[in-house]
Amino acid sequence: MKRRIGLIVGAVTIALGASACSSQTHAEYASYSSFDEIAAASVDVVEVTVGKSHKETLYSEGFTGDDPETNPYLGVKESDRPSPEDLSVDVIVYDTSVEATYKGTTKSGDLVQVHQLPNEAGGVPLEEGKTYLLFLLSAKGYPSGILGGPQGQFLVTESGYEAAETITPLKITQSDLASISG
Questions:
Q1: 65 and 143 Cβ atoms separated by less than 8 Å
Q2: Fewer CB within 10 Å: C terminus or N terminus of the chain?
Q3: Residue partners of 139: CB distance under 8 A and separation at least 6
């Protein structure tokens, strides 16, 4: 399936790289040094159960405007700009069901599509039937993205939250989540 999207691919890429205050970038993701940082940068913090998935290619329709933060090709001749195909990204889109919301407007039982890069591109795949705590960036009408890649992804276990990220894992507790629930 192919989907044309405006600035979502670029905006998510820019947001992943620029939204963390004291973040470092590893792979193509921002790295967060604390729960507070990643929670503040997230639009939604939710527990979801993963359903079916499919592959999809997301396309940017290009960058416009006179703000260099949202248009990295500002001042570049049209003929020298990359095409939407050059800016496309292959993702896996998961259908998920919200179990709990700690931040954001989703409610228990809502269906949310979540996209992530395939495993070979740095993603840690979500598994069908398992429940995860996810820190998400969202744009209406498009699949949500996991903030910080694997760093924003935690398997829900009987003993708590197991980080998918092994290089710079964050520790998450119920009291952390309670602190952002409103």
A1: no
A2: C
A3: 5, 8, 11, 12
